[in-house]
Amino acid sequence: MSHHAHAHRHSHGHSHGLIDPSIKRSRAGLRAVGVSLAVLGAAAGAQALIFLVTDSIALLADLIHNFGDALTAVPVGTAFLLRSERAERIAGLFVVAAIFISACVAGYEAVVRLIEPRAPDQLGALALAGVVGFAGNWVAAQVRSRAGRRLDSPALIADGDHARADAFVSLGVVASAAVVALGLEIADPLVGLAITAVILRITWQSWGTVRSGRS
């Protein structure tokens, strides 16, 4: 009996034990989620500070989405912590919902600014914010996508796909600064609306990924 008990403990204490693959997957998933959360949180924080001095709707739309993107780490991380495929599927639905809500908020703010036009200030800082958003999303996308494919996680893959698209959305903020600098003040809310349309497209693509449960 003692030998059997020792063998039992041995099998569960090393990598060939039945429980270890799920623990390793959980830790790898949490690591990917944590790193991407830190990167996106830092980028969104920097953008928030710049928004206070620029008052740009295009930047606000990007900022809202980047904060929403960072927050999707919570349900995805919880799913990996629970080591549950069902929880990962539910987390994927939370990701899709967060993307959709951010699109609605960004679209509303853009329409309000179209009705009450006001050009953004500090265009150099505005362009810098777009570059920061691009860099943060690109790094987060690489971390999430690689981990998602390695771990076969639709939720992480969906998160990675939309972070990658968000990187290019952030370049819209740079475009807004450039066009406003040329004298077209209405470009800022128009870019905000364009960003909203891209976010809605990302919502649909992410929904397809999560629903199919495949990469």
List the helices and strands and how they pair.
Blueprint: H1 2-13, H2 20-54, H3 57-71, H4 73-82, H5 85-115, H6 123-151, H7 154-181, H8 187-212
Quick description:
The chain has eight helices and no strands.
Describe this structure in words.
The chain has 215 residues and is mainly alpha-helical. The chain has one domain: Alpha-lytic protease prodomain-like, CATH 1.20.1510. 87% of the residues lie in helices and 0% in strands. The protein contains 8 helices and no strands. Helix 3 runs antiparallel to helix 7 and helix 7 runs antiparallel to helix 8. It is elongated. It starts with a helix and ends with a helix.
Features:
mainly alpha; 215 residues; Alpha-lytic protease prodomain-like
Helix fraction, binned, reads: over 70%
Give the overall shape.
elongated
Global mean pLDDT: 79
Q: Radius of gyration, rounded? A: 21 Å
> What is the subunit organization of this protein?
single chain
Named CATH architecture: Up-down Bundle
Strand fraction band?
A: under 5%
Number of strand segments: 0
Q: Count structural domains.
A: 1
User: Which sheet architecture does the biggest sheet show?
Assistant: none
- What's the total helix number? 8
